[in-house]
Amino acid sequence: MVEDDVLLGRGLVAGFGQAGFAVDWVRDGDDAAAAWAVTKYDAVVLDLGLPGMDGLTLLRKRRAAGDKTPVLVLTARDTIADRVLGLDAGGDDYLVKPFDLEELLARVRALLRRAVGEAAPVLKNGRIALDPAARSVTLDGAPVAVSNREFAVLQSLLMNVGRVLNRRQLEEQLYGWDEDIDSNAVEVHIHNLRRKLFPDVIRTMRGVGYHIPVRP
Predict the structure, then answer these.
(1) Using one digit for the tens of pLDDT, what is the confidence trace for 49-80?
(2) What beta strand segments (E) does 47-108 contain?
(3) Chain region(s) in the chain for CATH 1.10.10.10
(4) What are the DSSP E strand ranges found in 43-127?
(5) 8 φ, ψ to 5°?
(6) Is 157 within 8 Å of 126 (Cβ atoms)?
(7) Do the beta carbons of residue 172 and residue 212 sit within 8 Å?
(8) Residue extent(s) of CATH 3.40.50.2300 domains in the chain
(9) Banded pLDDT at 7 (limits 50, 70, 90)
(10) Which three-class secondary structure state does DSSP give residue 58?
(11) Where is the OmpR/PhoB-type domain (predicted)?
């Protein structure tokens, strides 16, 4: 998230955190350029009026470099011309301040679905269904209680069904920059998910990572 307003930024970090997102927050365009160039993000929420490099310039540079990260432009610039500029610069969505947090979260979820080729709002695979908006998990139609971080691990694996994710990739779904990472956190969450769902819901490729196989 690139946002220079401290009060708004703190509120957004809290809101995203409550919705299960791990957020790296930077406050100016130059720091954002440095972070974005070396970190693979699932999505970027980008203000335009920034200290240092302007948001539009940053977006154009990342697109020119071939970066395909989904970007939601979040800004007070509200004219039609501004929206056109933001979208033509490479933005995937555009939301004007002031805004409703629930709408912002819904738009980010939609960007994430489209990025992995998912159209349906509920992720389904075999006996499991996960609803990101309701933050619910069901097994054979029955609700299963999971923690926020268990939910984040399961969602990441379901959005990449059949693809192996290593521990570092999963840790990035769980922690922001300012959070300490427990050395065995991913293993603990996967153990708990296997216990709550069924033993081979998540499979381990030793020395590589974890995956959920495609199930009818």
Answers:
(1) 999 999 999 999 999 999 999 999 999 999 99
(2) 71-75, 93-96
(3) 123-211
(4) 44-46, 71-75, 93-96, 123-125
(5) -65, -45
(6) no
(7) no
(8) 6-115
(9) very high
(10) helix
(11) 120-214
CATH class of 123-211: mainly alpha
Residue type at position 135: R
CA distance 100 to 103: 5
How far apart CA 132 and CA 111 sit, in angstroms, is 12
Closest listed residue to residue 28, CA positions, set 63, 55, 57, 67: 55
Give 115: exposed, middle or buried? Use CB within 10 Å, 0-12, 13-18, 19+. middle
Q: Is residue 101 within 8 Å of residue 131, measured between CB atoms? A: no
What is the Cα gyration radius of the chain? 18
For the stretch 107-123, pLDDT in tens is: 999 998 888 777 678 99
Q: Which DSSP symbol is given to 2? A: B
Query: Which CATH number describes the domain made up of 6-115?
Result: 3.40.50.2300
| Angle ∠(153,175,8) on CA atoms, nearest 5 | 120
